[in-house]
Amino acid sequence: DIDDVGHKYYLELELEDVLDKDRTVNCTAEVLYHLGSQTSAPDVQVTVQGELRSTEEADKEFYTHIRSLEKELVAENIPDSHGNVPPELEPIHLLAWVASGYVIWQNSTENTKFHLAQVKHVKQVKRSDEDLQFDYVVLLHDMVSQEVLPWEVTLLWHPQRGARVSRCQAAGAGD
Questions:
Q1: What is the Cα 100 distance to its own chain's centre?
Q2: Which domain-ending residue is among 30, 53, 76?
Q3: What domain range includes position 150?
Q4: Strands lying side by side in the sheet with 114-125
Q5: How far apart are CA 119 and CA 10, in angstroms?
Q6: CATH of the domain at 11
Q7: In tens digits, what is the pLDDT along the chain, a chain of 175 residues?
Q8: Both 82 and 153 in a single domain?
Q9: 3-state secondary structure of 171
């Protein structure tokens, strides 16, 4: 019985194709929030109708470009106050979206509705291994309370291994 385990919600979503902004893909998601658990993320089952395009070539180009930079990438306020994301920072913004998704899944409740509002700050950290590391401060807007909450997130990324969040905490929580 689902009421003994948690609350189940069904969502219908449209995903925008990263490479073709005029194309969307429909998907449905079943989300199960566990009763009484403040620490476990909800269980999510996603079904995609259609096919998502591969980003393999764009991923390799971005990876090679970032690895070749002499100085670590640093950027602020993505998007800017007019909602613009410079094309060269679009991959950084997309990775922030992935990192924020992790924070949102780990910290959502039935009474929150988080949305990535802005990358306040991002800094690339050079590493001795093959991963790219980005230290983000992202601003998450809780649509329910209308609060804007800063989170510090460290994201590791490699085109073959994908994105992994190695650290996340509410900004100021570790001070």
A1: 3
A2: 53
A3: 54-174
A4: 74-78, 114-125, 132-142, 148-158, 162-170
A5: 29
A6: 3.10.450.10
A7: 445 567 777 777 666 655 556 677 778 888 887 777 666 777 788 887 877 777 889 899 999 999 999 999 999 999 999 999 999 999 999 999 999 998 988 888 778 889 999 999 999 999 999 999 999 999 999 999 999 999 999 999 999 999 999 999 988 765 5
A8: yes
A9: coil
